[in-house]
């Protein structure tokens, strides 16, 4: 009977050997922590479907930003919940909008923490869509002007990186142009290059209060069935001078992460979205899974699939485990 002389189990015999041949590593450096900044004072409201994640007023955001920095996590990404929403999302590009004030407060108290801002309209529009509505749909080109103004106002408030998540055509170039024209040529654009119209965003919409009042986002976010389209979207953003590419969501799209990693040389970001987080939390709460182990395996899987960085609500918990 034939038996191979190569035995893979030889390299799994003990933890030291396993450490020596381990191919993928999750590091605290890889993590980006999302935060929801709410208008008002003394607000710290846990999001029901996302245990441990809060809508918070600025003083609480700053306190948590300090904690994040002390854990060694290099960056946060900010989402805003304004006092008032309107049809054109005015708070999004107001010099004293919720996000602009939050950026300044974090930068004052925790200057070395990298502040990334989500650039989109859906948190600020009363209809909950990612841009200006014309004929019952989001109008691409008029939305670009507002997104550009929003990104510029974030840079002026001190943001280190701007991250457009709207999925309008041409937004990377629009942001790059306005930033360069105003002396912010050093500010990178992290593109949500490949963003699918996903049911995994459910809990986030509670958190950001951004559920569309009518219709859905399928005329601008991508069809979950499409892989080639992801390459076209990424190609387009590279041509428009994006500095990072992102795939969102991550867990059901690990093949897309690998595809982008193999085809592009920009840093690649995975967004481990709210629904992915909620599923782990809910199953762990029922004692159906070991929450910590599933969390670490999921994050490692995203790295193995090709992610260089992971935006994740697990960032603080993962950093604590990694820091030992
Ligand atoms: Zn949006």
UniProtKB/TrEMBL annotation:
Q: Where does 5-aminolevulinate 1 bind?
A: 205, 217
Q: Catalytic residues?
A: 195 (schiff-base intermediate with substrate), 248 (schiff-base intermediate with substrate)
GO molecular function terms attached to this record: porphobilinogen synthase activity; zinc ion binding
Q: Which residues bind Mg(2+)?
A: 233
Report the EC number(s), separated by commas if there are several: 4.2.1.24
Query: What SUPFAM superfamilies is this protein classified in?
Result: Aldolase (SSF51569)
Q: Where does Zn(2+) bind?
A: 120, 122, 130
Which InterPro entries does this one have?
ALAD (IPR001731), Aldolase_TIM (IPR013785)
Q: Name one GO biological process term.
A: protoporphyrinogen IX biosynthetic process
Give the pathway listed in the UniProt entry for this protein. Porphyrin-containing compound metabolism; protoporphyrin-IX biosynthesis; coproporphyrinogen-III from 5-aminolevulinate: step 1/4
| Gene Ontology terms: cellular component | cytosol
Does the record's keyword annotation contain S-adenosyl-L-methionine? no
Reactions catalysed: 2 5-aminolevulinate = porphobilinogen + 2 H2O + H(+)
For the ligand (5-aminolevulinate 2), the binding residues are 274, 313
Protein name in UniProt: Delta-aminolevulinic acid dehydratase
